[in-house]
TrEMBL record:
Cofactor(s) the record lists: FAD
Coiled coil: none
GO molecular function: acyl-CoA dehydrogenase activity; flavin adenine dinucleotide binding
GO CC aspect terms: peroxisome
Similarity section: Belongs to the acyl-CoA dehydrogenase family.
Keyword terms of this UniProt record: FAD, Flavoprotein
Record InterPro entries: ACX4-like (IPR045008), AcylCo_DH-like_C (IPR036250), AcylCo_DH/oxidase_C (IPR009075), AcylCoA_DH/ox_N (IPR013786), AcylCoA_DH/ox_N_sf (IPR037069), AcylCoA_DH/oxidase_NM_dom_sf (IPR009100)
Protein name as it appears in the record: Acyl-CoA dehydrogenase/oxidase C-terminal domain-containing protein
Residue span, Acyl-CoA dehydrogenase/oxidase C-terminal domain: 182-323
Gene3D superfamilies tied to this protein: Acyl-CoA dehydrogenase/oxidase, N-terminal domain, Butyryl-CoA Dehydrogenase, subunit A, domain 3
GO annotation (BP), single: fatty acid beta-oxidation
Domain Acyl-CoA dehydrogenase/oxidase N-terminal residues, every copy: 48-157
């Protein structure tokens, strides 16, 4: 589809910061506390200076242009088409593809760009992944030279938006029954999809950390209560572990050692931990945890399709199980007689 012009209403939005909340005062609890990185060891330790710059550029765009309007559009079940030119201006579509107007990003720059989009809005990250990681990558790998010349430059600038068919109406998890042909590009996309819940959980953790420091009950910040710290720390641990698993999977891919079992384990395990993380985040925000403007409820809802698409948790677990045991257990053995039960 060709993107029609839309009025850019982002500039007219009066919200001035990420969650439309006051600036975080880190001295609320400990007056001598110094500002520290929320993620230790720092995620930037895994990135080159160029990759860090790309990550920060995407974060700035998402916080400025998408965060102020995301809850409104989520409530209306509509997509904010006016942000598409903003995504195009980032020059990240096409990701690792070289030539044809594509940026030729490193794998890690691509992964963290995806995570930064999902950190603010999972719907935007799904849109970006389908357009760039699936449709554009498929065109680059499988298309003719004429098709690449015709489509990739326009797609790289988001002047044209791509779609991608993943399944068929009569089949879901029974991939072997599909009439279309699947290729190994699916393993690559499954690893990239794993960075969606990583970014989503980064945003949930950020929101909960701010909320606990700013909101007071019984005369003290919520962060001062032991039970809240006990829930916040596992969230941080999960995000750290998810990032490192995602990073390790890309290193395997770069080394040519990626297998379907590795890719499926990453996607299934990361989404399982992400489910746990957003559930803890919803508990920490109590009643506000079910309001879309506080991000966590939206993330809670957005995570369910991520847990299911690109292979359900269960199917991905079975793909890995087949690889480590040598036994496929996707379908039950045919029954030889009717059960008496």
């Amino acid at each position: 589809m060709t993107v029609p012009p839309y009025q850019d209403d982002v500039k007219n939005n009066q919200r001035t910061n990420y969650f439309n909340s006051p600036a975080l005062d880190v001295s609320v609890v400990f007056r001598k506390q110094r500002r520290l990185l929320l993620f230790l060891p720092a995620i930037d330790d895994l990135l080159t200076p160029e990759e860090q710059a790309i990550r920060l550029r995407v974060r700035e765009c998402m916080e400025k242009d998408v965060a102020p309007i995301m809850a409104e559009y989520w409530d209306k079940a509509e997509f904010p088409f006016q942000i598409i030119p903003k995504l195009g201006a980032l020059r990240i579509a096409g990701e690792t593809i070289k030539g044809y107007g594509c940026p030729g990003l490193s794998i890690m720059a691509n992964a963290f760009a995806t995570a930064e989009i999902a950190r603010v809005d999972a719907s935007c990250s799904a849109f970006f992944l389908v357009h760039s990681s699936l449709a554009m990558l498929t065109s680059a790998l499988c298309g003719s030279e004429a098709q690449k010349q015709k489509y990739l430059p326009s797609l790289a600038e988001f002047k044209t938006v791509a779609c991608w068919g993943l399944t068929e109406p009569d089949y879901g998890s029974v991939a072997s029954a599909l009439r279309a042909t699947a290729t190994k590009v699916l393993a690559v996309s499954r690893v990239m999809v794993a960075w969606q819940p990583i970014g989503l959980c980064m945003g949930v953790y950020d929101m909960c950390h701010r909320y606990l420091k700013e909101r007071k009950q019984f005369g003290a910040p919520l962060a001062a209560f032991q039970i809240n710290q006990e829930k916040l720390v596992p969230m941080l641990g999960n995000v750290q572990a998810m990032v490192l698993i995602g990073w390790r999977l890309w290193k395997l891919y770069e080394a040519g050692k990626m297998t379907p079992g590795y890719a499926s384990m990453g996607k299934s395990w990361i989404t399982l931990r992400a489910r746990e993380t957003v559930a803890l985040g919803r508990e920490l925000l109590s009643g506000n945890g079910i309001l879309s403007e506080f991000l966590v409820a939206k993330a809670f809802g957005d995570l369910e399709p991520i847990y299911t698409f690109e292979g359900t948790y269960d199917i991905n677990a079975l793909v890995t199980g087949r690889e480590v045991t040598g036994i496929a257990s996707f379908r039950p053995a045919a029954l030889t007689q009717r059960s008496c039960l």
